[in-house]
Amino acid sequence: MTKMSKPLSSRWLVWLFFLSGMAAIIYQIAWQRVLFTSFGVNIESVTIIVSVFMFGLGVGSLLGGQLSKKYFDTLPHIFLILEIVIGAFGLISMPLIKWVTLGTLHMPLLVLPLVIFGILAVPTMAMGATLPILVAYLHRKTHLVGQSVSTLYSMNTLGSALSCFLTVIVLFRFLNLSTTILFAALINFTVGYLVFRYMRELKKAGAAP
After folding, report:
1. CA pair distance 26, 184, nearest whole angstrom
2. What angle do CA 86, 24, 14 make, to 5 degrees?
3. Which of 144, 178, 185, 194 could form a disulfide with 87 if both were Cys (CB 3.0 to 4.6 A apart)?
């Protein structure tokens, strides 16, 4: 096994998707807590926040499917960009959410979904787009679409499950909300760097990304 064989393996990206899933759940839990301080903790706000988050993931998944067809030859590049976008939003998310919610604090409850979606549209759609992007890429490498979907989804779910315990038991116990979100952003930037390294090693080896 050569020194470069590990980053050259497309299976390496599966573990990066595991980390991406961890970051996504940290964001969801932390952003919910921030929004709860503005809109209160009741069944209406909980339902709206979770629904908007899932709606963004669903729209992002559809968008990712279209991108995977249109930019089939640059899928790792798109995944890299998505991770950087998510991490960059994470850096500004706390002051942005507080600023927007302060301006809409006394608006009717019916406006709440639009406000939350307006805040979280970009990161949640970027998160949702990562799965179809990587599925298309691994399918191109392995020609096994079922295996690609099941492997990525299971690893992302495993990362999300682990992240629930990590966030509540460890991060919220020792870090404040701002630092917790910065930790998630660091995960995204780390994933982005490792994808960049993966593409660079492919280029050195003369292989197609």
Report:
1. 6
2. 95
3. 185
Q: What is the pTM of this model?
A: 0.86
- The alpha carbon of 54 is separated from its chain's Cα centroid by a whole number of angstroms, namely 12
User: Are the CB atoms for 41 and 179 separated by under 8 Å?
Assistant: no
Instruction: Look at residue 115 in the predicted model and tell me its pLDDT.
Output: 81
96-124 pLDDT per residue, tens: 888 887 777 677 767 777 888 888 889 99
Domain ranges within the chain, ordered by starting residue: 9-204
Contact criterion met (CB below 8 Å) for 56 and 128: yes
- Joined together, the tokens standing for residue 45 give 């706000």
Give residue for tokens 């964001």. 27
Q: Mapping DSSP to helix (H, G, I), strand (E, B) and coil, where does residue 65 land? A: helix
Closest CA to 115 of 48, 172, 27: 48
Using CA atoms, how far apart are residues 148 and 134, in angstroms rounded to an integer?
A: 8
pLDDT tens column, 16-29: 888 998 999 999 89
Phi-psi region of 144 (alpha: psi -120 to 50; beta: other; left: phi over 0): beta
CATH topology of domain 9-204: Growth Hormone; Chain: A; (1.20.1250)
Side-chain half-sphere of 88: how many Cα atoms within 13 Å?
9
